Amino acid sequence: MKHIKIALIPGDGIGPEVIAEGVKVLKAIEKMDSDISFSFTTFPYGCEYYLENGRMMDEDGIEKLKEFDAIYLGAVGYPGVPDHISLRDLLLRIRKEFDQYVNLRPISLLNPSLTPLKSRTEEDIDMLVIRENSEGEYAGAGDWLFPGKPEEVVLQTGVFSRKGTERIIRYAYEEARKSNRSLTSISKGNALNYSMVFWDSVFEEVGKEYPDVKTFSYLVDAASLYFVSNPERFEVVVTSNLFGDIVTDIGAAITGGLGFATGANINPEKAFPSMFEPVHGSAPDIAGKGIANPIAVIWSVSQMLDFFGESNWGKAVLTTIKDLLREKDYHTKEIGGSASTRQVGNRFVEKLIKSMSP
Ligand SMILES: NC(=O)c1ccc[n+]([C@@H]2O[C@H](COP(=O)([O-])OP(=O)(O)OC[C@H]3O[C@@H](n4cnc5c(N)ncnc54)[C@H](O)[C@@H]3O)[C@@H](O)[C@H]2O)c1
């Protein structure tokens, strides 16, 4: 029996609404498979917690979370708490402290009706973006000198260590080799003359160990254009923290929006818990209405199961998502439907159970 200890951080806004549906899916799987079990412990961390306690999580929050195999997070951030606090003190802190240096963001079109791109099919848009998740432009290094004075200067330093750059690029080569797909590096060596020249040289250097992997290298501006004009160019993509954040939002835009974008923050060595979460934020504009799309958070369940070696379940969840999307009655509002978050979650579970019964 495999037991997975999950820390739930539903967070703010639509976070708790969508996480509830993801948990429903995990509980349904546990019922169907006597070889897997999950336990859930909920942590109230988020902006409400901050307003009450002056911090985003317990003082020993990291120690507490360390006990778990996985963290399943909804979203954090809400008006009233500056975004740089909610993001840095919870989300980025967890990613950093648990050395979740790989951010896996699949960009796959799950149903042709979801893309705004003319005549594009599931075959055209099917890539995996591997984003560096522990340093780079989000390292939090810099300075703010002479604040408020005419000579004010702000420095934001990108940190690209050899260890950090090499391990993410190597991970991407391994993934490309394993899945027999090409690997594209996205960088910006023409303008960022230290960090991205270094990135490009490491990409080339590590590539010598993978002569069987076909590679491409694009500047981030050109890559952004190709994401829209020629998404079929991309199979496995590796890029830095900032560029990965931005290009995967373009990826979301061409595959149905943020309700369909998921991401796994992985510590491949399993020395610390990995974190699974939708890419979207807390969506204050629709929070509390029960209309948020839970597909991204359900897709996170698929990523979680893949990570723990349950790829049959991972695949079953993804296939059921695709099946469900064929039913227009279960489309949420932002894609033109009228189904509620709960209706989508319930229908998903119903279909998953049906697809797995003999
Ligand atoms: N991972 C995270 O926790 C995360 C990520 C991004 C933003 N944030 C935070 O969330 C807050 C809101 O940020 P934002 O408005 O820029 O981004 P957002 O992702 O919350 O919302 C952007 C737009 O997408 C829509 N949307 C998002 N998720 C949806 C879903 N599941 N179903 C239907 N529509 C959905 C929203 O209604 C909104 O119109 C901010 O505080 C921000 O810092 C958190």
Automatic annotation (TrEMBL):
Residues 5-348 form the Isopropylmalate dehydrogenase-like domain. Keywords: Manganese, Metal-binding, NAD, Oxidoreductase. It comes from the Bacteria. Its EC number is 1.1.1.83. It catalyses: (R)-malate + NAD(+) = pyruvate + CO2 + NADH. SUPFAM superfamilies: Isocitrate/Isopropylmalate dehydrogenase-like. This is D-malate dehydrogenase (decarboxylating).
